[in-house]
Write a structure and sequence with these properties.
Blueprint: E1 3-10, H1 14-21, H2 31-35, H3 38-47, E2 51-56, E3 72-74, E4 78-79, E5 94-95, H4 98-110, E6 116-118, H5 125-135, E7 147-152, H6 163-178, E8 185-191, H7 208-220, H8 222-225, H9 230-237, H10 245-252, E9 258-269, E10 272-281
Parallel strand pairs: 1-8, 2-7, 2-8, 3-6
Antiparallel strand pairs: 1-10, 4-5, 9-10
Helix pairs in contact: 1-5, 4-6, 6-10
Length: 282
């Protein structure tokens, strides 16, 4: 049977993509950020998942205001890196796992989560930056070391789902994965965040104290985090801090008890707070 072994969260700051693509990781501003993921890359290389379920939000690359599904899953064989205004990123094409993805879609819909099945879409920095940070700076002629299932959640077009709904969705995702008959090692990513606001008079907002409490709660008491209302995310972490509900989707897919094996927090990264954590099931 397929088994979820660990969960990973990380911010997916678009400036990280540009830094990697322009080979500027050694610049003094960026070097501490990439150094913070060295141990995580070693962990991932040793962990060797067969499949990663990557929960992220699309930034109007695959979807736009005409259609914005709350929960979607990519069921195609492959997904090209999106052109976000300056050409496709020079990273490997994402190779999916359509059999597992379709199984998850069926099980979750029958488990009363109305998934949108996507058979063709490009994937933007929300998905490719986390892959770079955990797997390294691979080029377009390389391959990501495992199959990847894109799992977009809407946190762009109001109303986004609540943290509780995302957590419950993660639990349904776990049930679906564990009912798949093939022996697979699965790692679930939750991406986005942490505190940041990209526009208005509060642009550049960073709330380290709140971020730290959220990281602690993710390990120790995720159910308490599910009670945070949208208004608190916006007030305390900025308009884009709502992305952290996707971390709760990842956490819902894990055991109640987990082992925190890696944590990294850095400010500023572009105009955001960058957060990262690795949790293993125990």
């Amino acid at each position: 049977m397929a088994k979820i072994t660990a969960g990973v969260t990380t911010s997916h700051v678009p400036a990280i993509a540009a830094t990697i693509d322009l080979k500027k990781q050694a610049l003094p501003y960026w070097a501490p950020i990439f150094k913070g993921f060295e141990e995580s890359k070693k962990w991932m290389a040793e962990h060797k998942p067969d499949v990663c379920i990557l929960i992220y939000n699309d930034h109007a690359s695959a979807f736009d205001a005409t259609i914005f599904p709350t929960f979607a899953i990519g069921c195609a064989d492959e997904f090209l890196p999106a052109d976000e205004g300056w050409g496709r990123r020079p990273v490997p094409t994402v190779k999916g796992h359509p059999d597992l993805a379709c199984h998850i879609a069926q099980k979750m819909i029958l488990d009363e989560f109305d998934m949108t099945v996507v058979n063709k879409m490009d994937v933007d920095h929300g998905l490719t930056v986390p892959l770079n940070l955990l797997f390294g700076d691979l080029g377009p002629n390389d391959e990501w070391p495992c199959k990847i299932i894109p799992f977009p959640i809407n946190v762009v077009q109001y109303p986004p789902p609540t943290g509780k709904r995302c957590y419950n969705m993660g639990q349904a995702l776990r049930r679906a994965i564990e009912s798949y008959p093939e022996d697979l090692k699965v790692v679930v990513f939750g991406t986005g965040g942490m505190s940041h606001q990209l526009q208005g008079t509060r642009a550049g907002l960073i709330n380290k104290e709140w971020d730290t409490r959220f990281l602690n709660g993710l390990t120790q008491d995720p159910v308490a985090l599910t009670k945070i209302p949208h208004s608190e995310y916006v007030r305390e972490t900025g308009s884009e801090g709502i992305e952290m509900v996707m971390w709760l989707a990842m956490r819902g897919a894990l055991n109640e008890n987990v082992k925190e094996v890696r944590r990294f927090y850095h400010v500023p990264c572009s105009n955001t707070a960058l957060g990262h954590i690795i949790l293993e099931n125990v």
